[in-house]
Specification:
The chain has about 475 residues and is an alpha/beta fold. It is built from 17 helices and 17 strands. Helices cover about 40% and strands about 20% of the residues. Bound molecules: adenosine-5'-diphosphate (ADP). The site of adenosine-5'-diphosphate has 18 residues, from helix 1, strand 12, strand 13 and helix 12.
């Protein structure tokens, strides 16, 4: 099958979070199964786009309301990522370093989607599947199904994957003229609560909707930032598929970002060496359990509670534990986490920012990874932690609930029910006990490294979805 993945992120071209990891991996594994999966991304000005070579495949013009923009479609020359990578370059809108958070994000991502459909149209391409990811590409199923200028594409099945239902890309009807002309009777497919809602539109118009874990699909019926009823209504065409991890990138025995690689055969010494490295870098004590957090410092991740969680844990266990935080986000939380450094020198540290290499070393060198998330559609961090022999401490929600079973229930992780300071500290205390139960601690670390969350398995589930639509 000829499958187009359209996304705002794709590792290593442009990544902000888990969406990037998924779009950077799934197409590669679809191709290994004999399909032709391609990725289409906006032409950002990132390290990858400036350091690699591209061929110009197409040039055109797109209309966005009263404005007109030239666009080019560039293809990465070597297919080094395991799939054909296309960038839609619209210099005025995307020749910038960041993926999101510009005032004109509505214009940027609407133009990207229109350019994609114009390109397909002008070059007479007829994909077997168009797979859209999150709200940034959520207007595509609507335009393909309803806009007369794209009517030749209306029999091409569309799939929407919801990686995060909190963000929906809302904008007002005063910008309706950004979209190609459609009959006014069709506008209901764009609207939710009186405004244009690209995520809602995709949920209505895509042939199939997937979420990145089965539990997240269940939770969205109860809590979806206003889309609960819609998701309940569209449930018959919806399905939860747990994300995989790219074991070519996330493999402790070959990971080039690690100071010391290791496998299940030498994980004890391998992890210990990485821990010593981390502890030297961050002035921590390698003989004590090392608790870590990696992620966006936002409410969804429970990051606002981290300062209190850390200070209570460090006060209750003076000089007995280490905590290391890697993240960026809410400036208030960043400030509080930075402040803590001066009170708990030698046992606590924080790196405020985004650092891919450090993330890998933390997964390798840590004993525990904290994920007190309020919302976690899938969560990749816990899957990387498992693979690297680091025991996850998670709140039972979304994908965390689907992938981590408490050690007390015969599982391998430490789980709690609430995103509360109390629950997390209770789990930290259990984790300290486990750390000193050397036999169980080591057995658990070895066991989790062998759990199979590879994309090989998961890619088959997506193929089954695509095939069900081609009948
Ligand atoms: P989300 O997409 O909600 O942010 P996921 O768990 O799905 O969460 O994916 C997070 C990804 O981003 C993981 O690959 C994680 O290692 C990475 N990541 C998050 N914050 C940072 C950071 N500050 N530095 C390096 N990597 C990070």
């Amino acid at each position: 099958m000829n499958i187009f993945h359209i996304s705002a992120e794709c590792y290593p071209v442009a990544k902000v979070g888990g969406l990037g990891d998924v779009v950077g991996a799934l197409p590669k594994y679809l191709n290994k199964l004999g399909h032709q999966a391609k990725v289409v991304l906006p032409g950002y000005n990132t390290k990858f786009t400036t350091e690699n070579e591209f061929d110009v495949k197409h040039q055109g013009q797109l209309r966005l309301g009263y404005f007109s923009f030239p666009y080019s479609v560039l293809k990465e020359k070597t297919n080094k990522l395991g799939f054909e990578l296309y960038l839609i370059a619209i210099p005025e809108l995307f020749d910038r370093p960041n993926v999101y958070s510009y005032e004109d994000d509505t214009e940027r991502f609407t133009a990207f989607q229109v350019a994609f459909l114009n390109w397909l149209t002008e070059t007479h391409q007829m994909p077997d599947i168009v797979h859209c990811h999150d709200h940034h590409t959520g207007l595509i199923p609507f335009m393909m199904a309803q806009a007369p200028i794209y009517q030749h594409l209306n029999q091409v099945p569309t799939v929407l994957t919801i990686h995060n239902g909190q963000y929906q890309g809302w904008f007002g009807f005063e910008k309706l003229n950004y979209l190609p002309q459609v009959s006014s009777s069709r506008l209901g497919f764009l609207e939710w609560n009186g405004i244009i809602n690209p995520l809602a539109s995709a949920i209505k118009c895509a042939w199939k909707v997937t979420t990145v874990s089965p539990s997240y699909l269940d939770e969205l019926s109860e809590k979806a930032n206003g889309l609960e009823n819609l998701l309940r209504f569209e449930r018959p065409k919806s399905l939860g598929i747990l994300n995989g991890i790219d074991t070519e990138v996330w493999n402790p025995s070959t990971d080039e970002l690690l100071p010391h690689t290791y496998s299940t055969k030498n994980y004890k010494t391998g992890k210990a060496k990485n821990k010593v490295f981390l502890c030297e870098e961050f002035n921590l004590d390698p003989t004590k359990p090392l608790f870590t957090f990696i992620g966006r410092l936002v409410g969804e991740k429970g990051a606002d509670l981290l300062p209190e969680i850390c200070s209570i844990a460090l006060n209750r266990n003076p000089n007995e534990i280490n905590i290391l935080i890697l993240g960026s986000g809410d400036s208030h939380v960043e400030h509080q986490l930075t402040q803590l450094k001066q009170f708990y020198q030698g046992n606590y540290n924080a790196y405020i920012g985004y650092n891919e290499k450090l993330a890998h070393i933390i997964y390798a060198g840590a004993d525990y990874l904290l994920m007190p998330s309020r919302v976690e559609p899938c969560g990749l961090n816990q899957l990387y932690a498992l693979r690297y022999g680091t025991i996850p401490i998670v709140r039972r929600t979304g994908g965390l609930k689907d992938t981590v079973l408490d050690i007390g229930d015969g599982g391998f992780g430490i789980c709690h029910d609430q995103t509360s300071v109390f629950d997390v500290n209770h789990s930290i205390t259990r984790a300290i006990d486990l750390f000193y139960d050397a036999k169980l601690f080591d057995q658990t670390r070895k066991k989790i490294m062998q759990i199979d969350h590879s994309w090989e398995k998961v890619a088959q589930e997506y193929i089954a979805v695509y095939q069900s639509l081609k009948k």
